[in-house]
Amino acid sequence: MLKKENPKKKSKLVNILFAGFITGTLDGLAAMILNYKVNPGVIFKFIASGAFGPAAFAGGAEIIVAGVIFHYVIAFVFSAVFFLLYPFFYNGLRNKYFVAVIYGIAAWLIMNLGVVPLSKITMKPGYHIPVSTIVIGMLTLIICVGLPVVFIADRETQKSK
Which one of 3, 69, 115, 138 counts the least CB within 10 Å of its CB? Predict the structure, then answer.
């Protein structure tokens, strides 16, 4: 006998996938716009270098594709986690815009203080991220990750009430 799928679970999964696609696309576009002097392929080679190390920069289209895939996987993971945590954050903070700011800052901190240092991305010894780069990065993630996830999760939360 076939089990009927719970439409709420299906809706939640669709919304999480949608949030991941939107955040990945917006963040990727933002990276290309903010780094307009750099070939977009280099941006995705940089992402791929997290797994393949400096050799990624010598790679071709396959490395760029790998970088795009890694980028979207990361976007989907962050979106799923933030989406699922949204009700808890909203109940505590009572302001979806503040939640979006928290999400964007958290995403930046996790990526730059956790994921990147643990990856094979190499930085010059003594390199420190300029404050302006930190602020731009956090604002980008607030706009490209925090707000879309919050709007999608809030819509889902309102529907289920």
Answer: 3
Length of the chain (residues): 161
Q: Residue ranges of the alpha helices (H) in 7-95? A: 7-34, 40-52, 61-93
Q: 142: helix, coil or strand?
A: helix
55: CB partners within 8 A, 6+ apart: 49
Helix (H, G, I), strand (E, B) or coil at 121: coil
Token digits of residue 8: 């709420």
> Each residue of 7-40: pLDDT tens digit?
667 789 999 999 999 999 999 999 999 999 999 9
59, 45 contact by CB (below 8 A): yes
User: Three-state secondary structure along 103-121?
Assistant: HHHHHHHHHHHHHHHHCCC
Task: Decide: 14 and 159 in contact? Cβ < 8 Å.
Answer: no
Q: Rounded to whole angstroms, how far apart are CA atoms 160 and 153?
A: 11
Quickly tell me which residue has 């993971």 as its tokens.
77
Express as a percent the part of the chain with pLDDT over 90: 82
Q: Where are the domains of the chain?
A: 11-154
